Structures are given as C-alpha cells and as structure tokens.
C-alpha cells in the first residue's frame, strides 16, 4: 500500500504538531494535579498503552483524555484509586485499551500470521 501525499503531508503539519503537543501538556498537567497514588496508576496505564500502540498512537489520545477525566472524577470524589480500577491495574489498562479500539502493533503481527497461514494452506490444496 503506497502512501498518498495527504498521508505524508500530515506528518509535516507543524502547526498541528504544536497544537497536539500543547494539548498533551495540558492533559499531563491535569494528572500532576491529582493525588500521588493516582499519578502512579495513571502513569502505569499510559505506559501500558504506549507498549502496545501501533502507528503514531494519535488514535489513542481521545481515549487517554477520557481516562484522565475518569481519574480526575474519582480523585475529586476521594475514591481510593485501586477501588476505582481494581487491584489488577494491568487488566484495567488492557480493558481500557480494548475499549478504545486503538491500533496495536500486535494487530499487524496477527494479520501477518493469518496471511502466511492462509497462503501456505492454499498451496497444500
């Protein structure tokens, strides 16, 4: 699949990059305003997301910002962070990532495996 000029052009839209960076910094400041235990958990959730992000990760930004809203509300209501997400923070992160329907690098691996299997099985028939 060849890249179109519009695809390439979006990578060099410096005004948009600057706006995205400003929004990211604004959202991260919201996290820094939360209690320390919330900062630890949301930091780990974000790290989990970045470990599995496919492409540039921009498709995850809205979901991350929604999660910040979720955590902010919990902190405002004095809910202990593990009561909010459960004791298995990694499972919470996995479920959140699944709900976001963001691209993952593992999706590419799965697609390649299935393609190879289909090609090799078709040769056997």
Automatic annotation (TrEMBL):
It comes from the Bacteria. It holds the Pfam family DUF1048. InterPro entries: UCP029876. This is Cytoplasmic protein. It comes from Weissella confusa.
């Amino acid at each position: 699949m060849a890249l179109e000029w519009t695809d390439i052009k979006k990578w060099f839209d410096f005004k948009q990059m600057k706006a995205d960076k400003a929004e990211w910094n604004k959202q991260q400041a919201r996290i820094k305003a939360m209690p320390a235990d919330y900062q630890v958990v949301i930091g780990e959730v974000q790290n989990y997301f970045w470990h599995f992000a496919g492409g540039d990760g921009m498709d995850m930004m809205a979901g991350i910002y929604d999660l910040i809203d979720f955590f902010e509300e919990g902190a405002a209501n004095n809910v202990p962070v593990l009561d909010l997400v459960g004791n298995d923070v990694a499972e919470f992160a996995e479920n959140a990532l699944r709900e976001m329907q963001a691209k993952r690098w593992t999706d590419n691996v799965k697609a390649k495996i299935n393609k190879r299997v289909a090609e090799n099985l078709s040769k056997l028939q």
